């Protein structure tokens, strides 16, 4: 932060952000347009409202600067206001953004995407990930004639639509009949998945999952001897199960797309799904998502076939030219500048630093960094080694006071080594307080308010 680095966390106040949060709640249900951005996810009265951002830094309305992680819920992987992206967007803004017929930019963007993700043969763009995953589910149901959807139980989010949200604690307003059509399988367990497919023989339209988990290393429950990389073996096993049981295999690459490789996890592990969905990093903060897949399935949502039509995706704003220009600029930047490798290098430096800092303060078993280097998350565990929202609150509070806004440790390529080193220093200071709370077996004195809350919960 510009002037707040030495301020005591107990004196860290955000009066303008607090007032802005009240304004937000007065006119927007939840005070934000994404539940994961809600002020309930931050310590009480310490939820900064953002004024602007540049690169890996953001400024709140109180004038404080932060090093930011998890930018835009993992969508801004190149950093805010990236010059190549904003330049591409500006070029299109002066040419009009939406027409009564397709723009030539739509063809260019589709060709660029399919060149970047060569495992797909056709692509259709939309504005958000939920529309893309729901379109994949609808298409799978149409081509198989089956009603059920099998989702990976170990992955936290697939869609805002009823077929998925009905399975969460926030299922109010969703008919039970809809929820009953969604079943779940565990990541990494082929035997359990085959049992599910057998139990609902001829009923499951698709298997949908993130192809790699956010909490690597791979679960130890994978049955059978490994022939090589365990993730590759598992995904190849799923591919075989889907083929044998006649269902569609869908990879949700919203997170893994670009962060695992430019072609997503499917490009890294070499296992080709029938359909896949991309978003987040694809637009570097601009609204664009994609449903991609094999021509045989995707064309069912088109005009050049003789079968029953599928209402795949049809959105007024799905192909706005400036968002597609942003996506093309992102793909070019990733390939030309080796962004994925940079994300991994930055993440490895951060993970090593945080682990050393935690160990040095005696909390290495309680502040735990997990995940692929390009997609790091952290767990805050109590004195019994159990996940704790109270200890998370303590940790977040100290990070914020030190100028680090980090609901996760997901890096952007705009971070510098100096940013990482400052983050590690702040983490070390936070861990010193964490140790005091563990010794007292009670973090309450260091919370200064209610603990942060999980996104998915039944009651507000």
TrEMBL record:
Keyword tags: Isomerase, Pyridoxal phosphate
Cofactors demanded by this protein: pyridoxal 5'-phosphate
UniProt xrefs under Gene3D superfamilies: Aspartate Aminotransferase, domain 1 (3.90.1150.10), Type I PLP-dependent aspartate aminotransferase-like (Major domain) (3.40.640.10)
Enzyme nomenclature, EC number: 5.4.3.8
Protein family per UniProt: Belongs to the class-III pyridoxal-phosphate-dependent aminotransferase family.
Top-level taxon of origin: Bacteria
Matching Pfam families: Aminotran_3 (PF00202)
Name of the protein: Glutamate-1-semialdehyde 2,1-aminomutase
InterPro entries attached to this UniProt entry: Aminotrans_3, PyrdxlP-dep_Trfase, PyrdxlP-dep_Trfase_major, PyrdxlP-dep_Trfase_small
Species per Swiss-Prot/TrEMBL record: Streptomyces spirodelae
GO molecular function, one term: glutamate-1-semialdehyde 2,1-aminomutase activity
Coiled-coil blocks: none
């Amino acid at each position: 932060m510009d002037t707040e680095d030495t301020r005591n966390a107990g004196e860290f106040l955000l009066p303008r952000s607090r007032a802005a949060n009240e304004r937000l709640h007065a006119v927007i249900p939840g005070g934000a347009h994404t539940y994961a951005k809600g002020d309930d996810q931050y310590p009480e009265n310490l939820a900064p409202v953002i004024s602007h951002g540049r690169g890996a830094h953001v400024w709140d309305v109180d004038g404080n600067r932060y090093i930011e992680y998890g930018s835009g819920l993992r969508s801004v992987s190149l950093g805010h206001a990236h010059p190549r992206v904003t330049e591409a967007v500006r070029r299109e803004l002066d040419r009009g953004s939406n027409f009564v017929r397709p723009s030539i930019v739509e063809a260019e963007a589709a060709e660029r995407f399919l060149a970047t993700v060569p495992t797909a043969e056709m692509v259709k763009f939309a504005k958000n990930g939920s529309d893309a995953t729901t379109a994949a589910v609808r298409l799978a149901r149409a081509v198989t004639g089956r009603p059920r959807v099998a989702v990976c139980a170990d992955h936290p989010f697939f869609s805002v639509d009823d077929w998925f949200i009905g399975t969460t604690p926030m299922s109010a307003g969703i008919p039970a009949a809809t929820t009953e059509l969604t079943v779940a399988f565990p990541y990494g367990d082929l035997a359990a998945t085959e049992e599910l497919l057998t139990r609902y023989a001829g009923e499951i339209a698709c298997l949908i999952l993130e192809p790699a988990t956010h909490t690597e290393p791979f679960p130890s429950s994978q049955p059978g001897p490994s022939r090589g990389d365990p993730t590759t073996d598992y995904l190849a096993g799923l591919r075989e199960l889907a083929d044998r049981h006649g269902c569609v295999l869908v990879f949700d690459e919203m997170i893994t797309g670009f962060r695992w490789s430019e072609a997503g996890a499917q490009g890294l592990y070499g296992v080709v799904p029938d359909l896949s969905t991309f978003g987040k990093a694809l637009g570097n903060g601009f609204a664009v998502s994609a449903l991609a897949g094999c021509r045989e399935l995707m064309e069912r949502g088109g005009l050049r076939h003789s079968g029953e039509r599928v209402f795949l995706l049809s959105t007024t704003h799905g192909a706005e030219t400036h968002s597609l220009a942003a996506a093309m600029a992102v793909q070019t930047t990733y390939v030309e500048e080796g962004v994925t490798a940079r994300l991994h290098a930055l993440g490895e430096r951060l993970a090593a630093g945080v682990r050393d800092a935690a160990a040095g303060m005696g909390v290495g078993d309680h502040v735990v960094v997990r995940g692929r280097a390009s997609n790091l998350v952290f767990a805050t565990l109590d004195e019994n080694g159990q996940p704790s929202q109270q200890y998370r609150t303590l940790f977040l509070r100290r990070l914020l006071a030190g100028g680090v806004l980090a609901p996760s440790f997901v890096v952007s390529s705009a971070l510098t080594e100096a940013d990482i080193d400052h983050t590690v220093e702040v983490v070390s200071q936070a861990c010193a307080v964490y140790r005091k709370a563990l010794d007292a077996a009670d973090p309450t004195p260091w919370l200064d308010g209610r603990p942060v809350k999980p996104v998915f919960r039944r009651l507000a």
